[in-house]
Specification:
With 84 residues, the protein is of the alpha+beta class. The chain contains 3 helices and 3 strands.
């Protein structure tokens, strides 16, 4: 995936930091090094910033579970007592 800007979040001298990649001002990828929280939050942020059509056309790497469910016409949030 092409990007035109990369920005480091945190201190690269520490064992935990992340790099955010943007294309035309939109977040398109994040490398989260030893930071599970940054990884999960970046997945959400990428999904929120990219419309479903763009995410679906970008390849499997950016398609989240919620986006796949929405594309299939399924609810993205299910409230139940058991598994789907």
């Amino acid at each position: 995936m092409a990007y035109d800007n990369a920005e480091v979040a945190g201190d690269r001298a520490t064992p935990r930091f992340s790099v955010e990649y943007r294309a035309q001002g939109r977040l398109v990828a994040v490398d989260a090094v030893n930071d599970a929280r940054a990884h999960m939050m970046s997945r959400r942020r990428i999904a929120e910033e990219c419309p479903l059509e763009r995410v679906a056309g970008a390849g499997a790497a950016l398609v989240t579970k919620a986006a796949r469910r929405q594309a299939a016409g399924l609810p993205t949030r299910v409230f139940s007592d058991g598994p789907l």
